[in-house]
Amino acid sequence: MLSCAAIVTLLSGCSDRAAGSGVATPSPVATYVIPAQTARADETVIRAAPVTDGQMRFRVLGFEDGMPSLFGSHAEWNAKGQFARVRILIESTDRTNQKFDAGQQLLVTADGRTFHVDDFVQAIKRQPDEIPVGSFVRMEFDLWFDVPKDARITAIRFFADPPLGAIGPSKGVQVALR
User: Fold this and answer.
1) 70 in Cβ contact with 42 (< 8 Å)
2) Among 161, 165, 178, 159, which residue's Cα sits nearest to residue 51?
3) Gap between the Cα atoms of 155 and 49, Å rounded
4) What domains lie within the chain, and their CATH numbers?
């Protein structure tokens, strides 16, 4: 037969409270295990926090600039200035589809100039221009820019569709690249 002290000890061991603290310990949250990927040669890994615009979350993964030319699956192309590539991960944070438009995203330079993606280079590198992003879907790809040789790139500004009921277009959210 168990004593009262033994029963109390057994019951307290089944509690979700930290030993002796009286504070409930949270249950562990299940997380996906996604293996890390090696960055491409000459690519700078960017460790900025994700940002959200509208119902889309953006995370910059990598950045490279100063490329005088590029090779695609069917073409070699020289930059008018220099090519810059930003590797991004996007995620819809809503229960409905979101539209991602690469043409809205802007590369920002130290002197305040902004540059849109280069549609022709996006096509050569077979990267998306406009794509529907399903509910809570994540996608990873590159944005390609052709900017002047003297441009010192400092950031990228992301734009998503404004959420339902928003008045006016988004002002965008910016992530530092340097």
Assistant:
1) no
2) 159
3) 13
4) 44-176 (2.60.40.1240)
Taking the alpha carbons at both ends of the chain, their separation in whole angstroms is 70
Q: For residue 134, give both structure tokens.
A: 């399903």
Note whether 20 and 12 are within 8 A (CB). Answer: no
- Rounded to whole angstroms, the Cα distance separating 15 from 63 reads 48
Q: Which residues have CB under 8 Å from 27's CB, separation 6+? A: 16
Q: Where are the beta strands (DSSP E) in 6-135?
A: 44-45, 51-53, 56-71, 76-92, 98-101, 106-109, 114-116, 130-133
Q: What is the pTM of this model?
A: 0.82
Q: Largest alpha-carbon pair distance within the chain?
A: 87
pLDDT per residue as tens digits for the range 27-72: 889 998 989 999 999 999 999 999 999 999 999 999 999 999 998 8
**How many whole angstroms separate alpha carbon 123 and alpha carbon 72?**
9
